[in-house]
Automatic annotation (TrEMBL):
A Pfam family reported for this protein in Swiss-Prot or TrEMBL: adh_short
NCBIfam families per UniProt: PRK08264.1-6
InterPro entries per UniProt: KR_dom, NAD(P)-bd_dom_sf, Sc_DH/Rdtase_CS, SDR_fam
PROSITE patterns per record: ADH_SHORT
Keywords: Oxidoreductase
Name by which UniProt lists this protein: SDR family oxidoreductase
Length: 249
């Protein structure tokens, strides 16, 4: 399935900064007619409205709050593309004293938040001829780094859910895209110590809309991601993206 976002309506969680803001800017550049800037604090989207006018519509979503997501899905009934960008990262290895608490926090946002978004917006996308659902995963979905092992675990889980969504939403005509950035220059990236060698959020935004346009399932936006994606490609094509019949055997 391929999809052109020109004259379409896009919703982006965490749209007020970092990767989310870059995605919003790219959507506007590519001709989206409206972009819902989904943020926890509506006032934080004011600079985006000031810059782009009524093409940007702030809407409250906290992916930790199912009621806010349900309300937003009712309000944004015209949405064609949902980009679930919001996420969190703790710095805990598997034997840290706070590892379990860190993982619980990350799972609630990175995995359960994804599921809340998909459950709320899948019917909306179906009613609008399918559209696309995009999930920001990570290279950490397929490779664990010990210093933030709990984050990697949450992203591996979100990637598993994204694979399930690809199959579950296919029949309603919704294209699902799993995006796997490496280290990116964001506030989160700075906190992780990625430094100036990290990739640009703009690269992630471009990869998302290129991936939607080309009907891809995986997107590997930056140099580090592309190296990992290249090594992972055979498994991705022959196992993850293959149409396999589920068996109880």
């Amino acid at each position: 399935m391929t999809f052109d976002i020109k004259n379409k309506t896009v919703l982006i969680t965490g749209a007020n900064r970092g990767i989310g803001k870059a995605i919003l800017e790219e959507a506007i550049t590519r001709g989206a007619s409206k972009v819902y800037a989904a943020v926890r604090d509506i006032d934080s989207a004011a600079p985006l409205v000031e810059k782009h006018g009524d093409r940007v519509v702030p809407i409250r979503i906290d992916v930790d709050d199912a009621a806010s997501i349900k309300s937003a899905a009712e309000e944004a009934s015209d949405v064609d593309v949902v980009v679930n960008n919001a996420g969190v990262m703790k710095f805990a290895n598997a034997i840290s004293d706070d590892a379990i608490e860190a993982l619980q926090f990350e799972m609630n946002v990175n995995v359960y938040g994804l599921m809340r978004m998909a459950q709320a917006f899948a019917p909306t996308l179906k009613s609008n001829r399918g559209g696309a659902f995009v999930q920001l995963n990570s290279v950490a979905s397929v490779k664990t780094f010990s210093d933030f092992a709990t984050y990697c675990a949450s992203k591996a889980a979100s990637y598993a859910i994204t694979q399930g969504l690809r199959d579950s939403l296919r029949d309603q005509g919704t294209h699902v895209l799993s995006v796997h950035p490496g280290p990116i220059q964001t506030d989160m990236g700075d906190a992780a110590g990625f430094g100036d060698s990290a990739g640009s959020p703009v690269d992630v935004a471009k990869a998302i809309f290129d991936g939607i346009a080309n009907g891809n399932f995986h997107a590997w936006p930056d140099e580090v991601a592309q190296q990992i994606g290249s090594a992972y490609q055979s498994f991705a094509e022959n196992v993850v993206e293959a149409d396999m019949q589920e068996s109880l055997a």
